[in-house]
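Course exercise 7: structure representation. Students receive a sequence record and must write out the corresponding structure in C-alpha cell form. The form below is the worked example handed out in class, using tRNA modification GTPase MnmE (434 residues). Read each field label carefully; the graders check that inputs and outputs are placed in the correct fields and that the protein name is recorded exactly as given.

STUDENT ID: A-19
EXERCISE PROTEIN: tRNA modification GTPase MnmE
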Amino acid sequence: MSGVDTLFAPATAPGRAAIAVLRLSGPATAAILAGLAGPLPPPRRASLRRLRHAGAVLDEALLLWFPGPASYTGEDAAELHLHGGPAVLAGVAEALVALGARPAEPGEFTRRAVLNGRMDLTAAEGVIDLIEAETTAQAQQALRLAGGGLHALVEGWSGRLASLLARQEALIEFEDEDLPGALDDTVAKALAALSAEIAARLDADAGAERVRDGLDIAILGAPNAGKSSLLNALVGREAAIVSARAGTTRDIVEARLILAGLPATLADTAGLREAGDEIEAEGVRRALHRGEGADLLLAVLPCDAPPDAATLALIARRPCLVVASKADLGPPRHPGALPVSARTGQGLDALRARLESEAAALAPASGAALLARPRHRAALGDTLRWLREAADAQLPELRADALREALRALGRLTGQVGAESILDRLFAEFCIGK
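STUDENT ANSWER:
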C-alpha cells in the first residue's frame, strides 16, 4: 500500500510491567528503526539495541525487524520489546512521532493485513474473537477462524461454483455446438451436491454463535420465590440483593459463570405479578422480554407457597428448567421440579450438572464449527437461496444469473465483494495495537 502512514501502538496492556511491546508498520519503518537503533538487524531475529533520540538514551531493548510482505500487515514492520515503565514507553512513543510515525487507531494493523491480502475478513474476525475469548471452547473456535478454516471452506465452494457457472455459460454460448449431452445433467447434479453441503454446514454450526457470544440464562418466577438467592448460590458471590421483602428486584441483575466450557450470563429478574406501580410494571415487562430471548429459562417455584399462575403460564408456554426453590422448607409442589435450597446447598450440584448438560446441548455438535457470526450465516443463507433458485430455473440464462449471485454472496463472506461496507464496523471492535 503506497502512500500510507507509518503507524505504531503498544501491543501490551498499559501500566507497570517488566516488558512493554510496541509495534510499528508502514513504509517508513526501516528509516525510523535506523534513526532509533542504527543498522537494521537480520530479519525475524531478536537483537539487543540501545535506543537513542535527540542525543538521549531512551532504553535498551530487543528489536525485531519484519520486512514486508512477510509480516503480519504485509508491510515493513517491527517490534520493540521495551522495559515496561510508563516513562520508557512514553519517551519512545514521543521519539517515534518525531521520526514521522503516528499512533494507530483500533484495529489498524489487522485492517492493513486484510487490505494487503495477508488475511480475509473471516480470519480478522477470528483474531478479535481470540483476543476476547474467555474459555477454551471460544479460543479453539476463534483459532480455527483466524487460521483460515472458513476461508479455505469458502474458497473450495467458490471454486466449485465458478466451475458450475463456466459449464452453464458454455451451454448458453455454444448451444448449437456438439457439446456432451450429459453436460446439463452434470451441472444439475453438482448444484444439488453443493447446496446439500452448504445446508449441512449451516445446520452443523447452528450453535457456533452461542460459543462466541455465550449463553443467556434468565431466572423468572414470582416475587420472593428465591430467584436472587439462587443466582448468588450459582455464581458463588453476592451479586444480587436478597431480602424477605417481595419485589426487591426491579431491574435485571446479571452475573457471569462458565458452563460446559461456555460463558453464560445468568439474569435475575423482577417477580412476575400484577404491578403496584409503573416502575414495577416496567420491571415485569423487562423480565418477560428477557425470558423470551433467553437461550435457557429457569422457572422458580418455591416449596413454601402454592405455584403462582404467572409462572405456571410461563412453563406452559415455552420449555423451562423448573426449579423448586427453598427445598429446606418442604417438598416440591410441581411435578418434575428440581428441589434446590440456596440456604443449605441442597440440590445445587444437581442443578449445576443439569445446567452443564443443557449448555453442552446448545453448543455445536461438531468440534469444527466456523460460522461464528450472524453475517456468516446470512451470507451462506443467501448463497443457498440463490443455488436453489438456480436449480429451479427454467431457462439456462436465469440459472446462470442465479449462479453469479450465489458466487457474489460467497464473496461477501470473505470480503472479496463489498468489504468496505463492513470494514469500519469490524475494526472498531479491535483494541489498539491489533
